[in-house]
Amino acid sequence: MAFARPEGEERVSGLELDLSRQLWAYATQPAHALIPAASERGTQHRLAVTITEAYFLGAKNIGDADVLAGIAADYGFERAEAHAIALDPIQHKRVEQEAGRSAAAGIRSVPHVIFGGRAAIGGSQSENEIALHVQEAAPRSFSKNRKRAY
């Protein structure tokens, strides 16, 4: 039941998501430790997408440093280096601190998007709901009735 909405929204977007394939929820600290390290390599976004796909589409254990090292090898990392970063307790502490700051700011779900500092949505939302929030948050200067030179 809990998977019906996100799976339905993904099908509308053209992605065949089957969350029942992923039988476990894994610790994400290793993945969240590794992703920022890819920034200096220019592969951060692509690595994050691949890790997300590995978990949601491939039912992989993204809490396993060996799994992450295998993935990261395609994004500028040596396997041993990625393995070490994924297991680094200092990086895990940083991830926990960031999660604490997010929770203190009221973020309770992923994704969580704030539009124009006014409207926030969390969790799985339809494309239409997201578009509505964007329209509501858009400042009047961007409305159809006014023109603005840039």
Question: Can you offer a commentary on this structure?
Answer:
β1 and β2 (119-122) form a beta hairpin. It is built from 7 helices and 2 strands, in the order ααααααββα. Strands 1-2 form a two-stranded antiparallel sheet. α2 (29-37) packs antiparallel against α3 (44-56). The longest helix is centred in the middle third of the chain and has 16 residues, at 89-104. It is 50% helix and 5% strand. The N and C termini lie far apart (48 Å). It has 2 domains: 4-104, putative protein disulfide isomerase domain (Cyclin A, domain 1, Orthogonal Bundle), CATH 1.10.472; 112-142, no CATH class. The protein has 150 residues and is mainly alpha-helical.
CATH superfamily of the largest domain: putative protein disulfide isomerase domain
- What is the general shape? globular
Question: What are the segments in which pLDDT stays under 50 over at least 5 consecutive residues?
Answer: 144-150
> What would CATH call the architecture of the largest domain?
Orthogonal Bundle
Radius of gyration: 18 Å
* Number of H- or I-type helical stretches: 7
- Write down the domain tally: 2
Across the major sheet, the strand order is: 1-2
Q: Let me know the largest β-sheet.
A: 2 strands, antiparallel
Look at the structure and give the CATH class of the largest domain: Mainly Alpha
Q: Please state the average pLDDT score.
A: 82
Helix and strand content put the structural class at mainly alpha
Helix content: 40-55%
CATH topology title of the largest domain: Cyclin A, domain 1
Measured between the Cα atoms of the first and last residue, the distance is: 48 Å
Run of helices and strands: HHHHHHEEH
Number of beta-strand segments: 2
